[in-house]
Every structure is written in C-alpha cells, then in structure tokens.
Amino acid sequence: MKTSELLLKLKKEVERYKEIVKAPEKTDNSINSIMSRYNYENFQEILTSSINREDEDVDDFMVEDLKMRIDHYFSLYAPEDKSFREFIKIISTYLVFVAKKPLHPPGTVFKDGYRVYKGKDRYICTGKRKFMAEELSLCRYCICRF
C-alpha cells in the first residue's frame, strides 16, 4: 500500500470520531494531558492533511503488527476501552507511517526521567533503549532514535 492510500483509509476511519473527540480541557503538564493534546492535534491533522512528499510504500504486515502491539498494550492497561483503543490505532498508524512523527510528543518527560526531544535533524528518546526491551513494545515503530 502507498502512503497516500493509507492516509485516505485513516481519514475514513477517523470520521466516526468527529462528533466524539473534543479539544482537551486540561492544560497541565501531566503525561495524560500532554498525550491528550498531542492525540487531538494529530486527529485534526489527519482530517485536513494530504501527502506533500514522495508517495512511499507501506508494509501491510508492519501496519498490522503495530495494531497488534497496541491491542497488547491496551489489554494490559485499559482492556475495557475499545473505542479509545481503535482511536489510538488510527493516530499511531498516522504518526508512524504517514507523518513520521514520534509516538510521544517532543517535550514529554517520563516518570523515570527519560524524555523525548527534537535534535538537529531527528527526534530523540532517551528511554527508547530501555522501553524496547518490553514485550511487544510500540517503540519498535517510533521514529525516535536512542
């Protein structure tokens, strides 16, 4: 599948959330608030974006593997929230394969002090090496470098 095809598919899938997803009200710097704002920004971006670069090939197996890893994560931390799980699959697929942006926004500081930031020409996650060791880690697909 091409990047443009994937984006069109994601646009169709995200349509069902237009009436549900609202701008986050919290403006604190907790990880939940930061992620809510980032997810909302990318939700809006999916609705309005188009491919403005070379149309690349996207490996269908990798897309499905990312979704399976998200299913695994949610089965551990939020098994009852199926609608949010599907929303996050759309956002994450967009971030990884279309937008080429990190799964956590630059400026994110994790509770153990690891952080995500934008370097000169790439994104860095100081915890990626550790997080990659977790079973079915989503970090495998994140654009961030160590």
Describe it for me?
The chain is mainly alpha-helical and 146 residues long. It has one domain (3-141). 48% of the residues lie in helices and 4% in strands. It is built from 5 helices and 2 strands. The chain has a two-stranded antiparallel ribbon. A hairpin with a 4-residue loop joins strand 1 (116-118) and strand 2. The protein is globular and about 40 Å long. The protein starts with a helix and ends in a 15-residue tail after the last helix. The model has no long low-confidence stretch (mean pLDDT 95).
Output the keywords:
mainly alpha; single chain; about 150 residues; UPF0305 protein MCBB_1428
Quick description:
With 146 residues, this protein is mostly helical. Helices cover 48% and strands 4% of the residues. The longest helix is centred in the first third of the chain and has 18 residues, at 31-48.
Count of structural domains:
1
Strand order of the largest sheet: 1-2
Radius of gyration: 15 Å
Biggest sheet overview: 2 strands, antiparallel
Query: Strand pairing plus helix content: what structural class?
Result: mainly alpha
**Run of helices and strands:** HHHHEEH
Average pLDDT confidence is 95
Q: Work out the strand percent.
A: under 5%
Count of helical regions: 5
Describe the global form: globular
**Fraction of residues in helix:** 40-55%
Oligomer: single chain
- Please mark out the parts with pLDDT under 50 across 5 or more consecutive residues, or reply none: none
The total of beta strands comes to 2
Report the span from N to C terminus.
29 Å
Organism: Methanobacterium congolense
Protein name: UPF0305 protein MCBB_1428
Family: Belongs to the UPF0305 family.
Pfam families: DUF2115
